[in-house]
Automatic annotation (TrEMBL):
It comes from Xanthomonas citri pv. citri. This is Resolvase.
Length: 22
């Protein structure tokens, strides 16, 4: 679903910035 994709994108972005902790 588009919502899940948006959530995944935001999670990946946060994960990339903070490393392991989101």
């Amino acid at each position: 679903t588009p919502m899940m994709e948006a959530f995944a994108a935001a999670y990946k972005k946060c994960r990339t910035k903070n490393g392991k902790r989101a």
